[in-house]
Design a protein that fits this description.
heterodimer, A: mainly alpha, MetI-like fold, two-stranded antiparallel ribbon, 2 strands, B: mainly alpha, 13 helices, 75% helix, globular
Chain lengths: 303, 270
């Protein structure tokens, strides 16, 4: 690439040149390791101790007791199901809603940019504020707007966040993340070649066939990126569960379960064991899916 | 015929957009109501507006929480930029061996549940007496945003034309000159996008703030939840607080939509 330039330099410069990239990446690498990997190693160590923060001086080695507890109490499987289920449903619904919005907004019409601005706003709202506003002004049984509409239509009020916490969390997450999906898919739609679309319309391909055979294949890469990024963000979603449902009705995700063990129960050893199991599961699931999606991503980036 | 159909779709799009936005509008409207108006069983659209809700935010000391949020967001964003620009530079313009492995490592730290690191961080912070310290929280936010920032920066940097860099090297520019006066000016919009997104994520963050801070360093998101009490009506003041908390990011997002899209797709979407 820059062979000519390099040749002109002395050997000392060359060594410097070769070390430079390492020096540049080192601070970020060290920082990242110190704040994510080292704490994880500490988590593994904690998981092997019997340690309650209410009695911090009684810390002792516990072997695999905490792990036995984790696998025997039966909290783990429901938490895994809740985490995977909530993430999967929310990613799928927000992707579908986002695709619908993207198609609607991909045409020229009066106030197009204003409509787009309105639709992206839920994604910008502080998630804690969204959860509170939905819980108390939309879902509430007495003063919630949704229940007002439902009652006007002749049905009886629904206790959304108490009776149907699972659906309520999915509705909230979809409302927040569909705009994000829409933004990515919209830039995919707008990068379609006009000539191909015109050719399709000259050939009288019809809207649906054009969509299915030209637009969707073109969008594939964008859809994959949207799913990857959406999964990363939704997998960690804690606010709606903590604020809206407190883990009731099948919404006790791994993150919330661990939070409960550690900061309500003050049991460091057990919470750490949950943490380790969570990470191992995430690694197992993610390695396969992440590696393959990552390839798509890299190829998207390097285009 | 065709135009009727087009008008119909436009009308439908508008109805959907307005409905989708409604919860936000409703939050805004409720923030100007008295508690009684806000708790009305029939949603009130016509009422005498009042600033009562907003004035109560001052009494509750909201400015402290906003200041904390601002500090944590600015400090962590500055740190992320300082770490991610050189790292991304090493991953794109002067590639190290195993670029893919390094990238995979960074992105995988974002996949790792916060649950895995929160306990030790809590205990280490406690022992170092930096629990409830805004700078300690900023460090955590920087670690949280670093992978995304590196990823985004890398894609912005790899768009800098090779010829430009080659030319500057032939002119004998050393590394500092190359970075500061050749590369950075070109990717300035990209840096702005990265900064905006890191700021937004830190400003909106809830989990770490709940667990790592209490009276002194608490940021706005956990503060919002403190308006909920079992005793009475709080929707108006909660709406006012939520409006104030969400407004900076909403405005920034509205004005920087393009950068936001590119940034959020981490540069993968052109």
């Amino acid at each position: 690439m820059s062979a000519g330039v390099k040749k002109a330099k002395s050997t000392g410069d060359l060594a410097k040149e070769r070390n430079l990239p390492r020096k540049l990446i080192a601070p970020a690498l060290i920082f990242s390791i110190a704040l994510t990997q080292v704490p994880f190693l500490a988590t593994i160590y904690f998981s092997l101790t019997e340690w309650n923060l209410l009695k911090p001086q009684d810390k002792k080695f516990a072997g695999i007791d905490n792990y036995l507890y984790v696998f025997q109490t039966g909290d783990l499987l429901p938490a895994i199901i809740a985490t995977v289920g909530l993430t999967a449903f929310s990613v799928i619904t927000s992707l579908l809603v986002g695709l619908f919005f993207a198609v609607l907004l991909d045409r020229k019409f009066l106030g197009q940019s204003v409509a787009r601005t309105l639709i992206i706003t839920p994604f910008l709202i502080m998630p804690a504020a969204s959860a509170l506003i939905w819980k108390f002004s939309m879902f509430d049984t007495n003063i919630g707007v949704i229940n007002f509409v439902i009652q006007k239509l002749g049905f009886s009020a629904i206790g959304w966040s108490t009776q149907y916490p699972y659906i309520s969390v999915i509705i909230l997450l979809t409302w927040q993340f569909a705009p994000f999906m829409m933004l990515i898919l919209l830039s995919g739609l707008q990068s379609q070649s006009r000539e191909v679309l015109e050719a399709a319309s000259v050939d009288r391909a019809g809207i649906w066939r054009t969509f299915a055979f030209i637009t969707l294949p073109h969008l594939r890469q964008y859809i994959e990126i949207a799913i990857l990024l959406g999964t990363i963000m939704l997998l960690q979603a804690f606010d709606p569960v903590a604020i809206m449902t407190k883990g009731t009705g099948g919404t006790k995700t791994l993150a919330y379960l661990l939070y409960e063990r550690a900061f309500v129960g003050m049991n460091v050893g057990q919470a750490a064991a949950y943490g380790v199991v969570t990470v191992v599961l995430t690694i197992v699931v993610a390695t396969v899916s992440l590696r393959s999606l990552f390839k798509v991503f890299i190829s998207g980036v390097s285009k | 015929m065709r135009s009727t159909k087009a008008r119909l779709i436009t009308g439908m799009t508008w109805i959907i957009a307005v409905t989708y936005f409604f919860p936000v509008a409703w939050m805004f409207i409720n923030s100007f109501k008295t508690e009684n108006d806000a708790a009305s069983l029939t949603p009130k659209f016509i009422f005498t507006p009042t600033l009562e809700g907003f004035s109560r935010l001052g009494e509750r000391g909201m400015s402290n929480y906003l200041t904390n949020s601002l500090m944590a967001s600015v400090v962590s964003t500055a740190l992320v930029l300082a770490l991610s620009i050189p790292a991304a530079y090493a991953l794109s313009i002067r590639p190290i061996h195993k670029v893919q492995d390094a990238l995979f490592f960074f992105i995988s730290t974002r996949f790792m549940p916060a649950a895995a690191s929160i306990l030790p961080l809590f205990i280490i912070f406690k022992n170092l007496h930096v629990l409830d310290n805004i700078f300690a929280l900023s460090l955590v936010y920087a670690a949280m945003n670093l992978p995304i920032a590196i990823w985004m920066m890398r894609s912005f940097l790899s768009e800098v034309p090779h010829e430009v860099i080659e030319a500057s090297r032939i002119d004998g520019a050393d590394f500092e000159t190359e970075l500061w006066s050749v590369v950075l000016p070109i990717v300035l919009p990209g840096i702005a996008a990265v900064a905006l997104i890191c700021f937004i994520f830190s400003w909106n963050e809830y989990f770490f703030s709940v667990l790592l801070t209490s009276a002194n360093a608490k940021t706005t998101p956990p503060f919002l939840a403190s308006f909920v009490d079992g005793r009475g009506q709080f929707l108006a003041v909660l709406s006012a607080a939520s409006t104030v908390a969400a407004l900076p990011v909403i405005l920034a997002g509205w004005f920087a939509q393009k950068q936001l899209v590119r940034g959020l797709a981490m540069g993968a979407v052109k």
